């Protein structure tokens, strides 16, 4: 039996994301086994697990790309697999590879989601430029993806995800391809944006440091995806080297990796 997430559901309010006793199999492969957790509105939660643990599968369930084999998934109270259209503007996703279109400039990439949602062109452009400014990319608005550094491309990708003003941001290994310093700066920027605009964020990472630095709550998953450990890092855990190390080692032990 996996432990169930024991964090309180905020003020009895509907959580932004709820997975209740989920199983998900692909043929004979069990990707998720009895997984339950929720993400409250305004929370930043990190999914930490080894490769193949079923993290992306959980994200796909939240996006409504497929339904669970067993259990209940709710996003803002809706079933994402059924209410896919209604949730289109609620959820945005940032991926490990930035998925920018090479023939569109940075601003044209950022406004794309808005155009798909049928926002008028001038308004879409205005919002795209605002988000480029928020991620410090104004100077790169008219450059093409191949003219940007890896960090700039990830920033553009995040601006694109945020431009549709989603309530929920899902990030799948968004920072893992960047060097340590770039990744750290971007994580700090993203946390700031999420808090400032009161977004809800679930982000996948395999780096323990990323999770401690960014998350209100860390869910450590075993394979197939099931909850092994849940931790809520405090400000002290982030700033005090010894505390950081203790939490890091505890998570590493749960993951079964060398610290
Ligand atoms: N569409 C699919 N069809 C068949 N098997 C799948 C499918 N999607 C995922 N799986 C399997 O489910 C398991 C979990 O995969 P998933 O991609 O969710 O892991 P992950 O935790 O995101 O791994 P990584 O850290 O490598 O991205 C794996 O064994 C994978 O092969
Ligand atoms: Mg994955």
Low-pLDDT segments: none
Number of strands: 9
Summed up, the helix count is: 9
Mean pLDDT reading: 89
Query: Residue share in helices?
Result: 25-40%
Order of adjacent strands in the largest pleated sheet:
5-6-7-3-8-9
Named once each, the bound ligands are:
adenosine-5'-triphosphate, magnesium ion
The helix/strand series, from N terminus to C terminus, equals EEEHEEHHHHEHEHEEHH
Query: What is the name of the CATH class of the largest domain?
Result: Alpha Beta
CATH architecture of the largest domain: 3-Layer(aba) Sandwich
| Broad structural category | alpha/beta
In the CATH scheme, what's the topology name of the largest domain? Answer: Rossmann fold
Radius of gyration: 18 Å
Q: Give the overall shape.
A: globular
CATH homologous group name of the largest domain: P-loop containing nucleotide triphosphate hydrolases
Into how many domains do the coordinates divide?
2
Q: What fraction strand?
A: 15-25%
Report the major sheet. 6 strands, mixed
- Span between termini: 26 Å
Task: Write a brief caption for the model.
This protein is of the alpha/beta class and 259 residues long. It has helices at residues 55-63, 106-110, 112-116, 121-134, 150-163, 180-196, 208-214, 235-239, 241-255, and strands at 17-26, 29-39, 44-49, 70-75, 91-94, 168-172, 200-205, 217-222, 226-231. The strands form two sheets. The chain has a six-stranded mixed sheet, sandwiched between helices. A three-stranded antiparallel sheet has the order 2-1-4.
